[in-house]
Amino acid sequence: MKKQQNILIIGAGLCGSLLALRLGQRGFNVNLYEMRPDLRKVEISAGRSINLALSDRGLKAMRLAGVEDKVKELCIPMNGRLLHDMEGNTVLAPYSGREHEFINSISRGDLNALLLDEAEKHQNVNIYFNKKCKSVDFENTTALFEDYETKENFVEDADIIIATDGAGSALRKSYFLGKKILFSFSQDWLTHGYKELSILPAKNGGYQTYKNALHIWGRDSFMLIALPNLDGSFTVTLFLSFDEGEYNFGNLTTPEKVLEFFEKYFKDALELMPNLVDDFFTNPTSPLGTVKCSPWHYKGNTLLMGDAAHAIVPFYGQGMNASFEDVVVFDKALDEGEPNSEAGWEAIFKAYENSRKMDTDAIADLAIDNFHEMKGHVNNAIFREKRNLEMAFEKNFPDDYSSKYSLVTFNEDIGYREAMLRGRAQDKAILNMLADKELDSNADLKTNLEKVNRATEEILEDDRVAKNFKH
Amino acid sequence: MKKQQNILIIGAGLCGSLLALRLGQRGFNVNLYEMRPDLRKVEISAGRSINLALSDRGLKAMRLAGVEDKVKELCIPMNGRLLHDMEGNTVLAPYSGREHEFINSISRGDLNALLLDEAEKHQNVNIYFNKKCKSVDFENTTALFEDYETKENFVEDADIIIATDGAGSALRKSYFLGKKILFSFSQDWLTHGYKELSILPAKNGGYQTYKNALHIWGRDSFMLIALPNLDGSFTVTLFLSFDEGEYNFGNLTTPEKVLEFFEKYFKDALELMPNLVDDFFTNPTSPLGTVKCSPWHYKGNTLLMGDAAHAIVPFYGQGMNASFEDVVVFDKALDEGEPNSEAGWEAIFKAYENSRKMDTDAIADLAIDNFHEMKGHVNNAIFREKRNLEMAFEKNFPDDYSSKYSLVTFNEDIGYREAMLRGRAQDKAILNMLADKELDSNADLKTNLEKVNRATEEILEDDRVAKNFKH
């Protein structure tokens, strides 16, 4: 059934580009449609984060597609969080006690362009820009597009349609509105929104502040972060409530008020941001949402991947990594399945969703937890004590301990869900033992590690026993 | 501002009728619109459960509205679960060790009619039937209706609109589709659906099986339940997967297959159901969903209540009770607020949602847990051991212990969330101590109770310490 080999991909963002590349490598006929202009030719407007944190799960996907070395040339290593207090004092909180574990700042646009270039090298991959998908007829496996240049609508037929069209996915809307299937769906908004700002390069083209870290100005109910770019600039993001607290997006309506806010809370950052007011009133304020849904596929016809299936908030730096990991998991399902008939595709889609959904649900929840950790807990004494202990464990017993952050970020061969369960149990064990003064910081480190690991196992076991009666 | 006193209620189901009654008692001008015909005059078709379990939270609301005594005349006490095994053997598992704690089977229609009658006694309450709300303009506080008799559309203006129009709420859809607010929303479907069946009265008008219990035929992956009606009949409900397992709604397509299924799994029930095949192919198969959303209100204009704000699955018998409790909580917010200006209403709506949402989220989750408990765990040895121990605690130390079920069902003065947290901690404590053989069933009961309470407190404390670093 050669006919089954025509695959239509909706959305040429990070996930769609990688998917097109990988399916092209596997020999499928791929047509990739994107609503935006070709970002390699046109400056794309802001509103999406300009840089992102690439870590081991994403790099594993780059390896699968044979582009890891090229991608690494775009990367700026970030070894930890550089925490800025109100007075401008800073302290580096490393991401791991193992020196080879770090995350990478990378330009969304550069990475996307690289993946498009690589995909286009395959004769069997064709990419079309300025074509906006409006809806998908998942029963007949056709998609309705609007051509933004000619303003005309047209329908594309395919054997398989995969939607990687992001948080506002047209296919997902068609599932939801079609009422042909029992479609479980959630969208959850935080009370906080975000706005992108910038720290420009130094006059000599260098960096105005420390390059190899993710900077955080955590102020409990809001925060500012900054990630480095290759050109010496930093992309800065303000996370702030829409309408609560003394300062919020709703009442920061004048340059004076914005400057007053930054003066009070982000003094050392403000000194590096003479362009603050311009940025603030030019760039949009955007909401932060989590989307979950199920099922991801309809029969063997259509499938949601990436943000279209599971959009998450950015606080674990895992949105892009999770979408890239989707491609790795999907590739494995292809290896194990028979993508040459409708029944074969249906089995592949089912196997993919069954193995993947619990992990994307987990990273969605972890990302929300991390919002609270980043804006507040990083400044808390007992939290820092926990992190210091974990760094010491990882440094001295690299094979015997990984913190929740390490499990999520640097352990690409275990799933997010397993990382979440073990990581949360560890956190619970350490925090409680610290609160009860059961961990003696003067005691032998190995003794403390054994205590923590024992308590973690007990917590996991107690949860297992209780959970068996819940599901 | 007398003008602020015109309240439009959409939906005259259980919640809307009680709300109209209570707001009528408080002196507001209430216009109550219902899309269905007046159920006191017309036989309403099936598809909704014919009887429901009324328990202490619901009764508290009846007390508030001064109708508790009248409602109790419609009630049939159910003291426990009567569990039917494959061979037709039965055992009664009481709901509580305290004899005065039981739930009540009640006819949805009779209760709804009673509330409508009581509401209509108030001159300031007007009820309109056959008027279907199609959308709500929450900015201008108007609702668009279709009159099912004249087929004409009309718009109603009000100072306040409260939507109690159930799981498919028109106001909720307007919030979702309007995109004026960041509206968090989830709909989650179980893989199981349900179908209503019946056991008819005995020839002498009596009951063909034990009257004062909720009957359960739990078969792990599916189940049958039955609740008594005043006329001697039972309403029977089959909960079964749509498309998985040997028998499912998808493949029960012939009378022979249905009879074969019941013969094999529900032999003793089948003997009482000569009308099974008729019922099975006449009555619809319906899905089981959970709906959560936020915010419930828009400014001081509009508010969602009851299933419109929080639809849940039926397995804790709390859907109606939660909606009635909404009215109690809302009534308290009215007492504490100033319902005489838009700002006053907004403060009331906000206070109501702030105090209420965490509780309705909790009962939604508990109801899903209970699905697994009812269809499977009730047959499990360690689960039964836990329940026996809890019954003994409640019987012998009635002031010192309440099981999760009791906390949820018979303790109307604590919220669902508190009941969930404490109840789950107790379950976890007992199940783990039983698994580890740390509870000696021959030991002094008081000793065991103290052990359980101590372990419960420890679990709650450990969770508190860990959670402080999550939110």
Q: Which pair of protein chains has the largest interface, and what are the residue counts?
A: A-B, 31 and 31 residues
Number of domains of chain A: 3
> For this structure, what is the CATH homologous superfamily of the largest domain in chain A?
FAD/NAD(P)-binding domain
CATH topology label of the largest domain in chain A: FAD/NAD(P)-binding domain
CA(first)-CA(last) distance of chain A: 41 Å
* Strand ordering within the main sheet of chain A: 6-5-14-15-16-13-17
Q: Main β-sheet of chain A, in a few words?
A: 7 strands, mixed
Helix content, binned percent of chain A = 25-40%
Structural class of the helix and strand makeup of chain A? alpha/beta
Assign the CATH architecture of the largest domain in chain A: 3-Layer(bba) Sandwich
* The CATH top-level class label of the largest domain in chain A: Alpha Beta
User: Low-confidence runs of chain A (pLDDT<50, min 5 residues)?
Assistant: none
Shape of chain A: globular
Counting copies of identical and different chains, the oligomeric state is homodimer
InterPro entries (chains A, B): FAD-bd, FAD/NAD-bd_sf, Kynurenine_monooxygenase
Pathway (chains A, B): Cofactor biosynthesis; NAD(+) biosynthesis; quinolinate from L-kynurenine: step 1/3
Catalytic activity (chains A, B): L-kynurenine + NADPH + O2 + H(+) = 3-hydroxy-L-kynurenine + NADP(+) + H2O
Pfam family, one (chains A, B): FAD_binding_3
